[in-house]
Amino acid sequence: MAVASASRPLTAEQLVSAALPQESPDADWHPVSVRESQVSGWEDQISDPACRLLLAAAHAWRPSQPAPTVVDQTFNWTNDNGGESTLASYGNSGAVAVFEEVREGLSTCRYYESPAPTTTYKGTVTVDPAPRLGDEAVQFEITAPTEVGPHVTQYTVVRTGSVIATFTKLSVGGRDIPAFPPAMIAQQISLLQQAQS
What are phi and psi of 107, to 5 degrees? Predict the structure, then answer.
């Protein structure tokens, strides 16, 4: 069944409709946004090719034919650095191929450097146990030292049919909740499954 659903991509409107509902807007509220450009460039500055492949695939910046439909969503939680999600719908069997690039990059990516505004970002990658979500899923963390303590970004990447959903959660200096809420991830995957059924 996963192969059949992988061939039917969702439109931008369908992805927006399937995104998680947000709580009431406040000064920092960000709506779901459709990504207009498929060109980034930041991944070219990542020192390790496997890490470059992993992060570009997870963030839907990999060149793909046809190009995926992508929506980004930012979450702001009280006393927290918040989180983000990227929902990318691929045509043909593109989601299967891109998820394989995520898995392939994760098999060897362990450390990379990239330029940052004030210093060099030095990220160490740790693979976590894969959650049981969607058709396939992986979870990993990237930890980098900063002046205020460790900068930890947790990634949960899930493929469900033609869509790859990437959830990121930032924790700085151990002061924030380290994981994207699992119940919200499960709800998002359920909404994506319903949109493709």
Answer: -70, -25
Q: How far is CA 50 from CA 58, 98, 166, in A?
A: 12, 14, 18
Residue found by looking up tokens 């979500």 in the block: 133
DSSP-derived secondary structure letter, 135: S
> Tell me: the pLDDT tens digits for 42-75?
667 899 999 999 999 999 987 777 789 999 998 8
Tens digits of residue pLDDT in 3-12: 443 458 999 9
Q: How far is CA 157 from CA 7, 98, 121, 188, in A?
A: 19, 11, 22, 12
pTM, entire model: 0.90
Name the residue among 82, 86, 62 with its Cα closest to residue 157: 86
